[in-house]
Amino acid sequence: MFALRVRICSTSLPKGLLVARPYASKPIPPPTTIEGVTHPADSWTNLSPTVVSKLGLNLHLSPDHPLGIIRSLIESHFDTFTPSIPPSAVVTVRQNFDELGFPADHPGRAPSDSYYVNRDTVLRTHTSAHEIENFHRGLERWLLSADVYRRDEIDSSHYPAFHQMEGASVWTPANISSLPSLNDALRQKIAAASSPLIVDDPTHPPCPTTNPSQPEHDPETLNFMIDNLKLSLNSLLLTLFRTHTDQQGEPLQIKWTQTTFPWTAPSYEVEVLFGGKWLEVLGCGVVKQDTLQRSGVPEKMGWAFGLGLERLAMILFSIPDIRLFWSQDPRFTSQFSAEKGIVTFKPYSKHPECKKDVSFWLPQGVDAVEWHENDFCDAVRDVAGDLVETVAKFDEFTHPKTGRRSLAYSINYRSMDRVLTNVETNALHLQVTDLLTSKFGVEIR
Ligand code: DAH
User: Fold this and answer.
1) pLDDT digits (tens, 9 = 90+) for 309-323
2) Substitution candidate for ligand 1 out of 95, 100, 128, 145 with most atoms within 8 A of CB
3) For residue 163, what are the contacts with CB-CB under 8 A and spacing of at least 6?
4) What is the domain partition of the chain in residue ranges?
5) Residue 1 above 70 pLDDT?
6) Which of 26, 102, 121, 420 is least buried, going by the fewest C-beta atoms within 10 A?
7) CATH number for the segment(s) 354-444
């Protein structure tokens, strides 16, 4: 999780495991009050003021916001699914990781990748954190949308707060025999759509070694289930991309690939060909029976998916920078409405960028700290807010004699709404370099 640049596939387990543990010798911050509840802090706490300021803004619930428009489109497409909004982004580590079967050493648990309120509590890193409680409610078809939080690099497609939508469909032994006819209906719906669909699916049948099915599942039923999952999501993508494919007169091209998620087997990702590039848009799979058992519905069988709303909205509305979703500038907000649906964003300005470099030596000996780039990115974000566009490392070396490690970063400052003066940028950059010294103990070169 989180090692890959594209968010939606990020719960796969990359090689080179880390063990989640707090940072050593960090001063413990004061308790945090979030949405009226005070949470004690401990050595795991790593919330940043920027990320706390995003809690409760609920962009995805605003009907005229691009994220709200995509959410409504998905809810209308899956009109037999019950939509819901989970109450708070503060969830337990159990909900977010343990109950979904994340191994103890999964990289997604590392405090360098996730925001810990304290040792037992995190800002949810994905909407899957609410899967178990939704199955518990006894719902058979449900959707949920929410804000999620991950520590990450700074560039045009990564922001520490973003939004996801999760959905699932499960069957009881009594109604599972309806799958073949449901699948036929979906096939007909796809064939009748005004824009054609080309699906590249080398994942069928699932590879027994690299994408194993669950021993509990009867192969014939599983095949119908996988077909239902794929047809349902192909049909959703056809709905979402209809405006675009109609305009271009080109068929929508989709590619299915196999992957791993701790709570599904087999598991898949879906990519869409857009602007000549394959872009990953969702993750999904057949829900593991032990997950359903933990949800109190061991007799059921079904599938689940999760998708990133910003990712889809950036593609569908041609929004070039993820920071724009948070903009209050009427030149942004007035371009979108529920009534107009998906429209192409018209950039209103591209103010000049202002690039500043910083090189430094990491502290050594007793003062040595583990360097996590995401700590640095959070600190830059806390100083410069949305005026920081990208942070990129351009040099790294270890001095052959002293063994000291040097790093060099280029920070790009740019406002989306106005021209940033040189004086302003220099002042921001000075604050960043001061913080590097005071917070991380580095020596500026
Ligand atoms: N939670 C996953 C992520 O953030 C996406 C996902 C994958 C959701 C598979 C699911 C699923 O429900 O079955 O990358």
Assistant:
1) 999 999 999 999 999
2) 128
3) 59, 60, 67, 145, 146, 147, 148, 308, 309, 310
4) 6-333, 354-444
5) no
6) 26
7) 3.30.70.380
